[in-house]
């Protein structure tokens, strides 16, 4: 068993009290999961302060505590370690507790507002095709080789993250591709983790409920690149206005990818079709099974990463041409009656605009009917913007519920409705029940029309008051159209 002294060696220890040679049986940040011999790390959260559970953790068996301030009640047989930031310490400790698995993998992290899941999933699929054993940590699912593990977060907490990485090493994985969310960066979930590369996709409006200002959202994303080591690569989208800013203070080797400017890695869109696009990657033409100009950026990031990981270019390009779209991202179904339905995870204004622009290019003379909602207990300021964009690019909009969580669904819809332009208010429908909203769209559609169901993509549930009820946009629309 490891000793406390060994586990805190990378932490910024301000002070300690008690025996540092105490053996640690597990590392835990939730008093409810503490066992005999646990090291409890008290974190300040958004709801409560973990410091208030220190006594409870000790009563459950914790023999050492990492905290930012000393508790009032001190137990003689417990060791207390005071650090500046316990969330950061948790990452550093968890990494050491699991013998630094990230150092035994080639781990690449992807951050940005949109495109993270798409890029990591495509990298995972591509490297599988190339014959490697790979790990994946994403919003949709986590994979240790071929074995699926349910994902609860886009980026797992520091302990779970290191458990999964260790599992990958033990199973013989050579690479791991993971999403690094802005929440994870602020909460130091990846502290102590060694990355061989970092990718930036783009930065647009999201999560301002949590980060409060766009500036601090940007700072959170940038902190990922600030901390990348010298021997890693930092790959950024320089067509995004913040692409260069991201790399301002990085020690990593810098690379740029672009479609509009000139980068180290470039893509050109040569032909757009209903379900395929001819693209050119650094001068070589490839037919891809993707639509949407934003997907050219995602594929370019995949291509560039493979090049930076020394995969032969020819193998990369062949694999690129065989990749298929990711579940819930422009997931298309054409009914027998000639109506096209598209399920997409667009849950930000920018994603919705990109998707609708793409769909406008493929509908010919048909109408676009958009069914969209916004998540409860999440950024409220994006709601009217999403509704306005839906109205701007669609012939008909049906506002509905996404995951209402603990909010009143009607009030979320009302926030969205406030963004509908005056002249479109009469024609915009509000149908709280998502199933009924989808039915309504199907009723309104005729041959040649396109129905976009946005916001939930791959999700197979609807979260209402802390309960997840089964719900699947793709299944719903298929059933209704049949
Ligand atoms: C806002 C947010 O990110 N919250 C995460 C955070 O919880 P929190 O800060 O609210 O924690 P808290 O409830 O205040 O508790 C504070 C501390 O006291 C501890 N505690 C609490 C109660 C108790 O009895 N005993 C105890 O020890 C808690 O374990 C915690 O360490 O830390 C928890 C433990 O790691 C996470 O589960 C939780 O994710 C919640 C469920 C969540 O919904 N997070 C979302 C917003 C999120 O993280 N999303 C991003 C994706 C965003 C994107 O799309 O880009 C993600 O990476 O998934
Ligand atoms: N490169 C991109 N630029 C802009 N929009 C994109 C891009 N890639 C995907 N999208 C849009 O954003 C949606 C979400 O994509 P994806 O799941 O890949 O992003 P994400 O960054 O993982 O999101 P989350 O923060 O929820 O994990 C897609 O359904 C699509 O509408
Ligand atoms: N990762 C995103 C997912 C949003 C998906 C949308 N369906 C919602 O519930 O708001 C978030 O946590 O904000
Ligand atoms: Mg994601």
UniProtKB/TrEMBL annotation:
Names of required cofactors: Mg(2+)
Binding positions (meso-2,6-diaminopimelate): 378, 402-405, 455, 459
Modification note: Carboxylation is probably crucial for Mg(2+) binding and, consequently, for the gamma-phosphate positioning of ATP.
Domain Mur ligase N-terminal catalytic: 24-98
Cell cycle keyword on record: yes
Sites of N6-carboxylysine modification: 221
One GO term of the biological process aspect: cell wall organization
Binding sites annotated in the UniProt record for UDP-N-acetyl-alpha-D-muramoyl-L-alanyl-D-glutamate: 31, 154-155, 181, 187, 189
EC number annotated for this UniProt entry: 6.3.2.13
Subcellular location: Cytoplasm
Stored Gene3D superfamilies: Mur ligase, C-terminal domain, Mur-like, catalytic domain, MurE/MurF, N-terminal domain
Motif stretch (Meso-diaminopimelate recognition motif): 402-405
GO cellular component terms attached to this protein's record: cytoplasm
Protein family membership: Belongs to the MurCDEF family. MurE subfamily.
Biological function: Catalyzes the addition of meso-diaminopimelic acid to the nucleotide precursor UDP-N-acetylmuramoyl-L-alanyl-D-glutamate (UMAG) in the biosynthesis of bacterial cell-wall peptidoglycan.
PANTHER family assigned to the protein according to its UniProt record, in alphabetical order: MUR LIGASE FAMILY MEMBER, UDP-N-ACETYLMURAMOYL-L-ALANYL-D-GLUTAMATE--2,6-DIAMINOPIMELATE LIGASE MURE HOMOLOG, CHLOROPLASTIC
Protein name stated in the entry: UDP-N-acetylmuramoyl-L-alanyl-D-glutamate--2,6-diaminopimelate ligase
Protein species of origin: Balneicella halophila
The encoding gene: murE
